[in-house]
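This section describes the prediction task in plain terms. A model, or a person checking by hand, is given the sequence of a single protein chain and must write out its three-dimensional structure as a string of tokens. No templates, partner chains or ligands are provided. The sample shown here is typical of the held-out split.
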Amino acid sequence: MNILVIDGQGGGLGRQLIQELKETCANAEIVAVGTNSMATGAMLKAGAKLAATGENAVIVCSKKADVIVGPIGIVIADSMSPSRGLGDVYKRQIGKSRAKRVLIPMNVCDNIIVGVSAQPVSAHVKDAVRIISDMA
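The expected answer:
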């Protein structure tokens, strides 16, 4: 299984995802794409096999992924400005990918996700990893 982890800002969410995925999905190839070099570096340190930074990396890697995982903002238009990461063209590419998308709820950027229990991000990460593990 080819798992693409996408994150931005400092890469904290991506780092947590990669650490959990490495333990749970040992045979998976984990590829990290950061929307900036800080995020990419954090995910590399967490143990991503391959990593890249930027919009083109999202396009290339999303075509090869079986699963794409990241914050919900990676698919919501205008939720992350281009200066913080992905432009809307690249979000459409994620949406068009044949991969299953596992999205971590983040009530930020004026997007409130109804019906999601208020719990720490680490709990959402564990849920996402369990779902991905069940796909393998």
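For orientation: The CA atoms of residues 66 and 99 lie 4 Å apart.
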